[in-house]
Design brief:
This protein is mainly β and 786 residues long. It has five domains: 17-143, Immunoglobulin-like; 148-377, no CATH class; 380-492, Immunoglobulin-like (Sandwich), CATH 2.60.40; 499-595; 600-784, Immunoglobulin-like (Sandwich), CATH 2.60.40. Helices cover 5% and strands 51% of the residues. Strands 12, 13, 16, 17, 23, 24, 27, 28, 29 and 30 form a ten-stranded mixed sheet that branches. Strands 1, 4, 5, 6, 9, 10 and 11 form a seven-stranded mixed sheet that branches. The protein has a seven-stranded antiparallel sheet with strand order 59-58-55-54-53-61-60, with no helix packed on it. A hairpin with a 3-residue loop joins β28 (343-359) and β29 (363-373). It is rod-shaped, with a radius of gyration of 54 Å. 30% of the residues are buried.
């Protein structure tokens, strides 16, 4: 890539108009010891801006220059090289820079001490091309050396003192004839060029000007200037370094003696190399006669530094009569530019300014300007996964982005996202400024975002994966480059935990929704807790976007009861958390609460019925519930008060009745007062699923997979009338499973402690029995058999 380019000649596209003065801060002008510099902000002038020189006519080239208006000269590429201008747009810089030699054309020169520059800046303003006048006067402080050589980027220039001290008869005024020679082809002054092979025939000054050479005489100096690559120049190798040489001898025959001026310019044309992260420039240590270069100064961007500054850094090496300057590619003072070519690249440009002093009989001062450019270097972007799993969010930082590169868009697992983001986006991205002229972007994406992929792994863990493809653009060219990164996070997932709270009428369960709750489900016993199941059993369930709440009223199916006394009892309800894939129980949420009620019945898994019954309707006048009993008159209450009685007895005792119906085993007993006039009765029942019973009766134990459901039935029984239920209290267990008819035979074989069976076939369907077999097991002592 070319490090700079020169402005070509452009035709005026519109009438030049005046505009307001140049805004502050967009144009910067500086006077240096041997040149004048203008820097214009490209954002103001644009890349198509151009300069014109304004000033006195100059007898130089007749070709290549366009005089647009009186005293105004367009600075083209060829005109700049011949007239002492260099104009560069460095791609890595934000400025257009013009440098003008103090001896440049059209510069007002007073005694080689005061130099006045006048230029026009042509730029676009509101669609029209406008002219901004730029003027500056410079007064160099450094005294001129007898010979001064300038090696600019596009031309070579040498100036020598014009005072002659030689043989008698030589007059200083004879130099004034050189001024006439600028305009006359018949001037006695001639120039002869020499190279390393032959001596070229002399030519007149007018012929030399036609070939692009410039000769000018000031009040005290003779100036010679030549663009690089002239036909009379030659390349020579000095200590292995290429140098370009133009050797011109200016002479005039005056009467019987000849006046000759030797004008020699020698400049290193080493283009620079890139070695081990350094831009390396080389030049011979002694380009001009003399034992050594007495002093050496090096700087960047026209600022010369003392030799010790570079020497301490080991950036200047003088070895084998060669000066080697090594500049780290990221050294301050250079200009950086990004380039997009699939990946992101960069190159660095350095404006090297070097000065050497050679001391032989008279001092020679050599100044060199070079634009050094690195090759394209890959600029890796830095990505860091800063995700904190507990935040349940990806946090990815993309850094080391140069300031001339910005984010255009990005993709999340293939989903295109434009930047800036919409206000409704669930993720955020923030531009983070870094102190080293770079910046970065912090992207946050929640784990539960639809763009994030999820994979359920073993041991209750979930892997979240996110592929990010960034699209960046390089300014101002809008070239695109891309960067990709993949991040993942593994989380240990625990089953949800429900909060439970007691109330007077039941238990309330509540759980806040989490992103991964879909991995589990809730169940009551073996059945999944759904809205349908809740409606069927009388639970009150609400489920919104924030939480699930289930209110379980007392005495609904699934409650277990224990610790029943006249003062109260404990009710327990359990909700299971199961893994959805395997239905395995992962967690049990059990809540036990104290309750009070006038009636309650519990059917235990070990075959015991505990019942607290309200006997106020069947208690005869003057009697108390403590004198009540079951079918077996010897089965009396455990506790009693004025209205209630508490019974607790094994199911296969106290003359309990047993019946089978539809896969269920029903144990039934009655609470009553022994009176032939009694019209009220209290029936108590416990019902178990038949397939959940391991043994109906055994000598020592009763086994059931789950508690039974109980009922307390308050009913009236008039004489010669069927039993009529009036009030019923029911505690429900899980719904029974239907079994085959062979269960009846198995049942008969398992009655271990029953003396005999009475098998009745119901003639009329009892409201609580319907069709089926009714078994009555009566415990009777053999001594009473009649």
């Amino acid at each position: 890539m070319e490090p700079f380019f020169y402005f070509g000649m452009m035709s005026l596209l519109s009438v030049l108009v005046s505009c307001d003065p140049v805004p502050d801060g967009v144009v910067h002008m500086e006077c240096h010891e041997r040149y004048f510099m203008i820097a214009v902000d490209r954002s103001f002038a644009g890349d198509e801006a151009r300069f014109e020189a304004v000033g006195k006519p100059c007898m130089i080239l007749k070709q290549g220059n366009t005089k647009d208006r009186t005293g105004v000269y367009a600075i083209t590429k060829s005109y700049a090289a011949s007239c002492g201008y260099s104009i560069a747009v460095v791609p890595s810089s934000s400025c257009i820079e013009l440098r003008a030699s103090y001896f440049s054309c059209h510069t007002a020169n007073q005694d080689d001490q005061v130099f006045t520059f006048s230029f026009n800046l042509l730029a676009r303003c509101d669609g029209a091309e406008v002219v901004y006048a730029l003027n500056k006067t410079c007064l160099p402080l450094l005294q001129w050396s007898p010979r001064e050589v300038t090696c600019e980027v596009n031309y070579m220039e040498v100036s020598v003192r014009s005072e002659i001290t030689c043989a008698a008869g030589t007059r200083k005024d004879d130099w004034n004839t050189l001024t006439t020679a600028h305009a006359s082809a018949t001037s006695d002054w001639q120039v002869m060029f020499q190279n390393d092979v032959e001596q070229i025939a002399p030519m007149s000054l007018s012929d030399a000007r036609e070939r692009g050479y410039v000769f000018e005489l000031t009040d005290g100096r003779l100036v010679f200037r030549a663009p690089y690559g002239q036909p009379h120049a030659f390349i020579s190798m000095v200590n292995g370094i290429p140098v370009e040489v133009v050797h011109a001898t200016l002479f005039s025959r005056q009467s019987w003696f000849v006046i000759m001026v030797d004008l020699l310019t020698t400049c290193s044309i080493h283009e620079g190399t890139f070695e081990d992260g350094h831009v390396v420039f080389e030049t011979p240590e002694a380009l001009y006669p003399g034992p050594d270069a007495t002093r050496l100064f090096v700087g960047l961007n026209s600022e010369l530094l003392e030799p010790s500054v570079f020497t301490d850094r080991e950036d200047i090496v003088i070895k084998n009569n060669t000066v080697q300057i090594r500049i780290p590619f990221n050294m301050d003072g250079g200009h950086r530019k990004s380039v997009a070519s699939g990946d992101l690249y960069e190159f660095f440009t350095f404006h090297l300014h070097m000065e050497q002093l050679f001391d032989d009989e008279e001092e020679t001062r050599l100044r060199l300007h070079r634009m050094l450019v690195t090759p394209l270097l890959l600029h890796p972007l830095f990505t860091q996964n800063q995700t904190v799993v507990e935040e349940h969010m990806f946090t990815v930082y993309l850094g080391d982005i140069p300031e001339d590169v910005e984010l255009l868009s990005f993709q999340l697992n293939g989903h295109e996202i434009l930047w800036p983001l919409a206000n409704t986006s669930s993720y955020t991205i923030v531009n983070v400024v870094q102190p080293n002229h770079q910046h970065g972007y912090m992207l946050k994406v929640p784990f539960d975002d639809p763009a994030v992929s999820q994979e359920f792994c073993a041991f209750h863990s979930v892997k979240y994966s996110l592929g990010i493809n960034y699209t960046l653009r390089v300014l101002p060219e809008n070239e695109l480059c891309y960067h990709s990164v993949s991040v993942s996070a593994l989380t240990d997932v625990s089953p949800p935990v429900l909060d439970a709270a007691c109330s007077e009428t039941g238990i309330t369960f509540r759980v806040d929704h989490r992103p991964l709750d879909f991995l589990w489900f809730f169940s009551v016993g073996s059945e999944e807790l759904t809205s349908e199941l809740a409606a069927q059993r009388g639970y009150r369930m609400t489920n919104d976007s924030h939480a699930l709440q289930v209110v379980v009223p007392l005495f609904t199916q699934g409650f277990q009861y224990e610790g029943i006394t006249l003062k109260g009892f404990l009710g327990t309800f359990e909700i299971l958390v199961k893994e959805r894939q395997t239905s395995a129980v992962q967690r049990s949420i059990t809540k036990t609460c104290p309750f009070t009620s006038s009636e309650v019945i519990a059917c235990s898994m070990d075959g015991r019925m505990t019942v607290l019954a309200d006997l106020s309707l069947i208690t005869p006048s003057g009697a108390t519930p403590s004198s009540s009993n079951l079918l077996d008159v010897f089965c009396c209450p455990v506790e009693a008060d004025s209205t209630r009685a508490l019974f607790s007895f094994p199911l296969n005792s106290c003359s309990s009745k047993v019946k089978l119906y539809n896969g269920e085993v029903i144990y039934e007993n009655e609470i009553f007062y022994y009176s032939k006039h009694a019209s009220e009765r209290v029936v108590v029942q416990c019902t178990y699923p038949l397939d959940g019973l391991h043994r109906l009766f055994s000598m020592h134990r009763f086994e059931s997979d789950s508690p039974g459901s109980g009922r307390i039935i308050h009913s009236s029984q008039p004489t010669a009338a069927p039993l009529r239920a009036t009030t019923v209290l029911q505690t429900r267990a899980p719904a029974p499973m239907r079994t085959s008819g062979d269960a009846n035979a198995k049942l008969l074989a398992s009655y271990g402690n029953v003396r005999y069976f009475r098998v009745l076939k119901s003639r009329k369907p009892h409201p609580d029995r319907r069709k089926g077999l009714f078994f009555q097991a009566v415990k009777r002592d053999f001594r009473h058999r009649g």
